[in-house]
Design a protein that fits this description.
16 strands, eight-stranded mixed β-sheet, three-stranded antiparallel β-sheet
Length: about 475
């Protein structure tokens, strides 16, 4: 339940009356349906920025009108609205529908993070995206302004996406050692949609996905919502332990392996070339397909890493994912999948059934990014900015965390995987940090056993916020 409203303290209308009117409107308009649970008095008072007594008065008035009801241990719920009292049949119980939905809700911590990320009061130490000042607004304006007269019709694109963008991507991927014709490329609305299409289009319900432990996928329900299972395979400094894959495949009937070999999320690790070759050989022998998520691959900061797995794929067993969300702008919602034509055609058919194609305007803009050469120019600039931010983060960690944490220096991407040495309660640390205006990404959302870890991102917070937030975080940990 979102509460993005506050009463006007300068109004002649009493605060509790304003709250009553606001909540009554939510109920009467059907936004808060019968059975909907109302936040606690403490949360309402914090959201409305009023005393708790003011909230109590408002709730009592709503109870007197028969709109809400409070039960010991059960919280306060909406029980009626004025129009439902006048009808012969009760309104639908939308809460029952919500609870019966096949897509499970996000973890509570993830939901809290998603809400708080839009509150400018928080220092976001875990956010995995480019800071607003790193998003190339000027380049975007240049692309649109100079090419306005070549703007296409903006109708529906063909099932696999804009042919011009796929041709540009075919050329771009060749520089990575990946030889893919436009017909083996599918344009998607970000790499996350690619995973959804794969779960719907080529996997059986009940299949098991093998993945690194920890993994970004554990913070989502992309595969689980389609009835899939996730099973983590341990990592070391060279990446996923490929030698263990046959055991995990046999023990858990693994159907597919998902991996982020370059600048792994959340650990920032880079899979070594030797491990990549071993992984490809093991998966080939086990007949285990691979999803290679390479959305961070262009964000190397010191030197280029090893070529993608797909570049050495001789059997068509690797589905390769890329995106502009991490390098240019998450708002474009443009990504791509590369794989055998039969698979790409199947995924394209599923995509046409779900959204009839990604935004044609975004596809046109993406094609311009590649065709004009501005993408490489932008990457050069963003790498320099990320190197500076990484340096600030590492220097601050050295000053304030040297006795209480361990970490490795990332060679690219966004993340530092911080291991807290003193025993901590992750949930308590998360809540305490929020009380001090700091938003964290705890390790246990990526692996239930990573309760001593935090994913620290240097890509979003400003230099001053990075220093301030990390210093304050160290103080919180030391005073635990």
């Amino acid at each position: 339940m979102m509460l993005n409203w506050k009463p006007d303290k300068h109004s002649s209308i009493p605060l509790h009356k304003q709250i009553v009117d606001y909540m009554k409107e939510k109920i009467m308009m059907g936004e808060w349906t019968v059975g909907c649970k109302i936040p606690t008095q403490r949360k309402l008072a914090a959201a409305f920025n009023v005393n708790r007594s003011t909230v109590v008065t408002a709730l009592e008035e709503l109870k007197a009108e028969g709109l809400i009801e409070g039960r010991s241990g059960g919280g306060t719920k909406v029980i009626n609205n004025t129009w439902s009292l006048m009808t012969l049949a009760p309104p639908p119980n939308w809460n029952a529908y919500v609870e019966a939905g096949i897509h499970p809700p996000n973890l509570p911590t993830i939901q809290e993070i998603n809400r708080a990320e839009f509150d400018p009061a928080f220092i976001r130490l875990g956010t995995g995206e480019l800071a607003p000042e790193l998003i190339p607004v000027a380049f975007m304006g240049q692309i649109i302004g100079q090419s306005y007269n070549r703007l296409p019709q903006l109708g529906y694109e063909e099932p696999k996406g804009s042919i011009r963008l796929r041709e540009q991507l075919s050329s771009y991927l060749r520089a990575k050692g990946i030889y893919a014709s436009p017909s083996s490329i599918l344009i998607v609305s970000g790499a996350l949609q690619a995973l959804q299409l794969i779960s719907l289009g080529i996997l059986h319900k009940g299949s098991t996905i093998l993945l690194e432990k920890p993994s970004y996928l554990n913070s989502l329900h992309v595969f689980q919502s389609a009835g899939m299972n996730l099973e983590g395979v341990p990592m070391d400094e060279d990446g996923i332990k490929a030698s263990l894959i046959p055991h995990y495949k046999k023990s858990h009937a693994g159907a597919l392996l998902y991996t982020i070999p370059s600048f792994h999320n959340p650990t920032g690790a880079v899979m070594s070339l030797e491990r990549r070759m071993q992984l490809l050989e093991v998966c080939r022998n086990e007949q285990l397909p691979i999803i290679e998520d390479d959305v961070y691959g262009d964000l190397w900061l010191d030197e280029k890493g090893p070529e993608p797995l797909k570049a050495s794929d001789q059997s068509g067993s690797v589905l390769y994912l890329g995106s502009l969300s991490k390098t240019v702008s998450p708002g474009l919602r443009i990504g791509w999948v590369v794989g055998p034509e039969a698979v790409i055609s199947r995924l394209a058919d599923i995509k046409m059934q779900t959204d009839y194609g990604s935004s044609s305007l975004s596809q046109w803009v993406a094609a311009e990014w590649f065709s004009t050469g501005l993408y490489e120019e932008h990457l050069t600039q963003v790498r320099e900015q990320l190197k500076e931010r990484r340096q600030i983060a590492l220097q601050t960690l050295n000053r304030h965390f040297s006795e209480i944490a361990e970490w490795n220096e990332p060679k690219g991407g966004f993340y530092i995987w911080l291991r807290i040495l003193p025993k901590i309660n992750t949930r308590e640390l998360f809540k305490k940090a929020m009380e001090h205006g700091i938003l964290l990404n705890p390790g246990n959302v990526y692996d239930v056993h990573a309760s001593q870890f935090l994913r620290i991102s240097y890509s979003y917070a400003s230099a001053s916020d990075l220093e301030k937030g990390l210093q304050l975080l160290s103080t919180i940990i030391k005073k635990r």
